[in-house]
Amino acid sequence: MVSLEAKSAYMAPLLESPMPHFFVGILYDQPDLQPPRLQLADSNSLACNVLHFVRHAEAVPCRELYQQLQGRKPNKESEWIYNDYLVFSLVCAVKKFALPSEWVRQLLSLRASHDEERQKLNATLRNILAGNLNNREDYHQVSLVYQVLTGEQVPDETRLNKMFKFLWRQPFPFFTSPFLNLISLKALELAFNSKGMLNPEQFFAAEQFTERFLLRTRRIAAFVVTVPVLALVVSLGVATVRYPENGWVKLALLLTSAFGVDVLGAFSGLRDKLRGIATGALRRALGYSPPSTGASRVEE
User: Where are the bilayer-spanning segments (predicted)?
Assistant: First the structure.
């Protein structure tokens, strides 16, 4: 059964087509999951079938399919080589079943792109083919999920921590690529499990709580700062009606009339400063410690 996080609001926008649905089923070990009918002209069909072969260690049909694919002579205009699910599945198959890797390396070289995400993904896949699973500049979540799918589970604690810290501080979705987002969600789950931490669904619930907490403390602080000022204004109004001849009341009215615009402008700036101070004090009083790096998801 696909885990609950796969059905959450965070996952839902990524599952609008069959390929991501099947990929999630593979990642979360959905029982009785069957790939669509194999169609060599359909890159998603190819990806699903190769992933299924890898997940269930079906070496013979995977090798036969790979031999058929090796007959293709792609170029930079071949659309199917830009299917991240397919290329990732082929990398997994090559490593899992010790297939010839030169053809897949050619695909990766043809996938040259100015897009930073695609460049980094290509570099990660090349390093996986080379057996380098812990390159410092790679998307470690990709190599981590590769290890899970192929059974080559040798996660590096340092790289795992670095990946976790990076994703923890990023707003969701982490990337523009749905493939990388799905990979990252699974990698987060693996990191949580390895550390005995919250599962991803609890993680996102905590993130939502943090956003609400920051927003509400800011509003409370604004209320605390604004109420005394409003009370002062109301008091001045009441005093004007009840004690129109009082010298102090006349002086206050005179100053307000003469410098009203400047006073309001100065008050606005002072109010913002006081609100910031009050917000920080309230959060500290409630035990909130802001991250040492990275921006909050709620505007401070």
Answer: 220-241, 247-267
